[in-house]
Specification:
The protein has about 325 residues and is of the alpha/beta class. The chain has one domain: Aminopeptidase. Helices cover about 35% and strands about 20% of the residues. The protein is built from nine helices and eleven strands. The strands form two sheets. Strands 7-1-4-6-5-8-11-9-10 form a nine-stranded mixed sheet, with helices on both faces. Helix 5 runs parallel beside helix 8 and helix 7 packs across helix 9. The relative contact order is 0.17.
Length: about 325
């Protein structure tokens, strides 16, 4: 059954959504850029697109809005890290988390959490195709397919913001902990297919699963095993990411330690990381499709209770 479901992942939809969010009509997704002739900023436009797609397949989208600031640009720093803290009196903007849930039929209180940040760099004009339009469209495609699936456990998908400050995934994680949400596993989806120029030229199909704390290792190994189990033709690697950061780190800090980051390479090797050259034409759509299938397979196994490494009872954070 899962094998048949994986065939529903559409390269055409992934390509369409990727180019929509990082080329035409939206060159960027940030609060401090408004396209000529538009009345709202490009991040708000991206949110509207995602909401239309999710509502079209039956989801009710939960919108949570927070105040954020764009980062400043400091060109004296290393090339890929020009972001700098804003001044307190810099402008503040509204930025929203979007979240949807596919409820489980037998154990709806147990949640598999997927995350992707949907914004592009606020301190520079970068399309942010690999970082992180790819993760956004992968989770959007997974949401579409799950909308027609019967699941035992619930799957919740968060579209947040990480290229502005504060990171809005932190609010979602802290609110989950305050409610006592029983999140069994957290999968951050960020920069799929991002890899070195040499690996891109060679057509390498890569997928890394990074864990930062020991409770994430069984989850990472489980996801890697799914690639072989479903013959996805991906070169997977389980790696240790020592810093508890990124959107996955926000959930770890909130107490959800069975958490991993899914990424194209580690250490991250994309030469256009955080630069204007992060354009959708560089994305290998086949790699993106296979990574999306891998994440869908792992999510389905966990939601259906097949994944034996998950605890029978999830501890509260």
């Amino acid at each position: 059954m899962i094998r048949e479901t994986l065939t529903r992942v559409s390269a055409e939809r992934l390509r369409h959504d990727l180019f929509y969010l990082s080329c035409d009509p939206l060159p960027f997704r940030k609060v401090n850029y408004t396209r000529p002739g538009q009345s709202v900023n490009s991040l708000t436009e991206a949110d509207a697109f995602l909401r239309r797609q999710l509502e079209a397949v039956g989801y009710t989208v939960t919108v949570s809005t927070y105040r954020v600031q764009p980062f400043r640009c400091d060109e004296t720093k290393p090339l890929h890290h020009w972001y700098a803290a804003p001044h307190p009196d810099d402008p503040w903007y509204d930025a929203s988390n979007l979240e949807v849930t596919r409820p489980g039929s037998e154990r709806p209180e147990e949640i598999i959490q997927l995350i992707s940040h949907k914004d592009s760099m606020s301190w520079i004009h970068s399309p942010g195709a690999h970082d992180n339009a790819v993760g956004t469209v992968a989770n959007l495609e997974i949401a579409r397919i799950l909308a027609e699936c019967d699941l035992k456990r619930s799957v919740r998908i968060l579209f947040c913001n990480e290229e502005h400050t504060p990171w809005t995934s932190r609010f979602a994680a802290e609110e989950s902990a305050a409610r006592g949400d029983r999140i069994l596993a957290v999968l951050n989806v960020d920069s799929l297919d991002g890899k070195s120029e040499e690996e891109m030229a060679a057509g390498k199909m890569s997928h890394c699963i990074a864990y930062s704390v020991e409770e994430g290792l069984p989850l990472a190994e489980f996801i890697a095993a799914c690639a072989d189990r479903y013959d996805l033709g991906l070169e997977t690697r389980v790696v240790h990411k020592p810093h508890i950061n990124d959107d996955d780190g926000m959930f770890i800090h909130a107490g959800y330690r069975a958490t991993v980051m899914n990424i194209g390479s580690w250490p991250y090797a994309d030469s256009e990381y955080h630069l204007p050259g992060d354009i959708p034409e560089r994305v290998n759509i086949e790699n993106l499709k296979r990574s999306t299938q891998l994440l869908l397979a792992a999510t389905l196994e966990m939601a259906d209770g097949i994944a034996s490494f998950l605890p029978l009872e999830s501890p509260h954070p």
